[in-house]
Predict the 3D structure of the following.
Amino acid sequence: MTVRIKRLNDAVHMEAINDDGNRLEMDGIESLGGIQAGFRPMEMLLAAIGGCAAIDVVMILTKQRQNPDSLEVAVDGERVSVDGAHHSQFKSIHLHFTLSGDSLDVKKVDRAIALSIDKYCSVAKALEHDSAITTSYTIEP
């Protein structure tokens, strides 16, 4: 797996390109010359954990013959500087899943989300040592 990063302007607007040729734009904050033309790298981490968990939840529910009509994940991260460092990391990350479907079993949804975060989501496993990861969900008709 390789991702290439290519600078798009004379500041910090970048493009990531994966092995399949898919592209994702990212940018820095305005004080660094960013022009709000893409995700900031730390936002990409939140998108990565949300996407990873969403894929897991859909796959687990499908195996349990639970077919949500829709699924959304809102991911909130709280950043903190560690020991006066110039960088910051996520102190906590919260994922809120909103699912809809006529016959979704609450216990199966709860289990699918727990399995994703605790066992299957590679991004969650990579972040869990430095970040408290929590979840919640809502099932809408």
